[in-house]
Amino acid sequence: MSVALSNRFQGGKAFGLLKAQQERRLAEINREFLCDQKYSDEENLPEKLTAFKEKYMEFDLNNEGEIDLMSLKRMMEKLGVPKTHLEMKKMISEGGY
Predict the structure, then answer these.
(1) Torsion angle, CA of 94/64/24/16, rounded to 10 degrees?
(2) What angle do CA 26, 28, 29 make, to 5 degrees?
(3) Which residues, by range, are in coiled-coil regions (predicted)?
């Protein structure tokens, strides 16, 4: 879908459409969690899911459904624990993150 968007739109318009598409997809995932009885006892679930969605959207900039190494590196920097590429790769290989 992102390829089709980039062919028709460029710049901010394409990015805005990509983020709107991502918002809808993540909202659907959140609805699934809210309807699942396994999570019915979870305190403040709607608020937690909203917070997770917002943070995820902040770092999944291309809407590929995953956070790549550069996005993870940027996330760690924003959290105040910057890491080098080598440190990031080591953490991932060790399963630390």
Answers:
(1) 120
(2) 65
(3) none
pTM given for the model: 0.64
The full length of the chain comes to 97
d(CA 93, CA 96): 8
Q: Rounded to the nearest 5 degrees, what angle is found at the Cα of 49, between the Cα atoms of 11 and 94?
A: 85
> Model confidence over 65-75: pLDDT tens digits?
888 888 888 88
Assess contact for 30 and 49: CB atoms under 8 A: yes
Which two three-digit tokens encode residue 91? Answer: 């953490």
* Residues 76, 60: Cα–Cα separation, whole Å: 14
Residue 92: how many CB atoms within 10 A of its CB?
12
Please give the backbone phi and psi of residue 96, each rounded to the nearest 5 degrees, phi first: -75, -20
